[in-house]
């Protein structure tokens, strides 16, 4: 009986982002969207898909990260010049991207963000600081109003990533952050009153970046991410224990 249970797999529930990516894949594979074609405007996609703007943006960002779409300022977003067969294969791999390995994603995010915040403290510009401050204020406003602040939390970390001036680190964080923060928040993995603690930790990170204090910035980010890192490590140990049984 245990062998039967071990061979069963959890039902995979697609997120709105995966559904958007799947529909875009269908348009490409069917030839309705060809390499070099321009995508409809973001507003039109939001209305057509019937989802929030953040889901459409996240889907486009992921497709851009994998080189499947290319956005040109003041021009729009275009389908990559890759062949239909290559696009089909890459999009299928992206949809199958393993979001269930929670502990691995958390660990990758932890070390990636420690490096990112050190670079941000070293390389930030006045514009970067303004962007991080605005993201922090937007998060605080939503929390104080009792509203969901998942998107504002993501934007804070993305603003820090942009300050690194390293496009690869920024792209990797853009890939990891949305799924992780939504998972953590929606499942209340860090407890009910995490928002007030997060506001203080965001402020500590911001102050260290503004001061250009690299070590303080890293320490502040480590404190911010430590709770979820410990939870993910406990989850990893539990999974290893179950495999040995």
Quickly list its features.
245 residues, Four Helix Bundle (Hemerythrin (Met), subunit A), 2 domains, 2 strands, Arc Repressor Mutant, subunit A, mainly alpha, two-stranded antiparallel sheet
Strand order of the largest sheet: 1-2
Gyration radius, in Å: 20 Å
The number of helices is 11
Seen as an oligomer or otherwise, the chain set is single chain
Helix/strand/pairing category: mainly alpha
* Coarse shape: globular
Instruction: Return the average pLDDT rounded to an integer.
Output: 79
**Gap from first CA to last CA:** 14 Å
The CATH class of the largest domain, by name, is: Mainly Alpha
Describe the structure in your own words.
- With 245 residues, the protein is mainly α.
- The chain has two domains: 16-95, Arc Repressor Mutant, subunit A (Orthogonal Bundle); 102-244, Four Helix Bundle (Hemerythrin (Met), subunit A).
- It contains eleven helices and two strands, in the order ααααββααααααα.
- Strands 1-2 form a two-stranded antiparallel ribbon.
């Amino acid at each position: 009986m245990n062998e039967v249970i071990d061979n069963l797999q959890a039902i995979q529930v697609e997120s709105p982002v995966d559904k958007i990516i799947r529909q875009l894949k269908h348009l490409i594979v069917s030839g309705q969207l060809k390499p070099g074609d321009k995508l409809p405007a973001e507003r039109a996609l939001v209305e057509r898909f019937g989802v929030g703007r953040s889901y459409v943006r996240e889907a486009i960002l992921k497709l851009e990260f994998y080189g499947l779409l290319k956005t040109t300022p003041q021009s729009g977003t275009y389908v990559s010049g890759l062949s239909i067969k290559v696009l089909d294969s890459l999009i299928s791999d992206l949809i199958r991207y393993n979001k269930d390995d929670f502990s691995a994603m958390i660990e990758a995010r932890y070390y990636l963000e420690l490096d990112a915040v050190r670079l941000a403290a070293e390389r930030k510009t006045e514009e970067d600081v303004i962007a991080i401050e605005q993201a922090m204020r937007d998060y605080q406003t939503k929390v104080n109003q009792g509203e969901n602040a998942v998107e504002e939390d993501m934007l804070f970390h993305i603003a820090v990533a942009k300050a690194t001036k390293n496009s690869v680190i920024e792209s990797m964080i853009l890939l990891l952050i949305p799924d992780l923060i939504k998972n953590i928040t929606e499942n209340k993995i860090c407890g009910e009153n995490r928002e007030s603690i997060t506001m203080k930790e965001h402020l500590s990170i911001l102050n260290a970046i503004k001061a250009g204090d690299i070590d303080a910035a890293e320490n502040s980010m480590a404190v911010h991410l430590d709770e979820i890192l410990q939870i993910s490590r406990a989850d990893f140990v539990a999974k290893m224990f179950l495999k040995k049984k």
